[in-house]
Amino acid sequence: MRYFDDFQLGERHDIPARYEMTKDELVSFATKWDPQPFHVDEEAAAKSVYGTLTACGTHIQAIVLWLASRLPEETAVIGALGYDEVRFLKPAKLGDTLRLVIECIETKPSSSKPDRGVVKNRHILMNQNDETVFTQTTTLLIERKA
Fold it and tell me: In the chain, what are the domain boundaries?
């Protein structure tokens, strides 16, 4: 188990898991949550500025959470406090292979509850060409070691 005290400012983790953007996944997710033509219709997507099917923003954030859950060590997270500085920098397209890098950018022990602390991480989602697709800052409340 990884606790607040184990986080080091500046540490980076390149998550070994990868996520493949398949047609079935793109269309299925977007049909339910964001049925824009460039997410659900191959012909419409081909005529769009993207030239192919793309993932909707909610799907991209779900992929980030899925990849983050593949860290080799479980983290003693009490809860997420927020997602900030959310940026969609490039489309996640059909056929892309996505990977996640997590960088610790801030740690702060709680001043009122000594059994926990706050960690801010930058999530960087990249495609197979090492192009940054998405970034966000995630603020987590994490248990301290007993």
Answer: 4-143
Q: Are 96 and 127 in contact (CB under 8 A)?
A: yes
Separation of alpha carbons 21 and 81, rounded Å: 28
How distant, in Å, are the alpha carbons of 26, 39, 41, 71, 111 from that of 35? 10, 6, 9, 31, 45
Written as six digits, the tokens of 110 are: 């709680």
Which amino acid type is present at position 31? T
Per-residue pLDDT tens digits for 33-78: 999 999 999 999 999 999 999 999 999 999 999 999 999 899 999 9
Q: pLDDT by residue (tens digit) across 123-132?
A: 999 999 999 9
Q: What DSSP string describes 21-69?
A: --HHHHHHHHHHH---HHHH-HHHHHHSSSSS-B--HHHHHHHHHHHHT
Measure the N-to-C terminal CA separation of the chain; round to a whole number of Å: 12
Give the global pTM. 0.93
Integer Cα distance of 60 and 30 in angstroms: 11
The top-level CATH class assigned to 4-143 is alpha beta
**For residues 116 and 77, what is the distance between their CA atoms, to the nearest angstrom?**
9
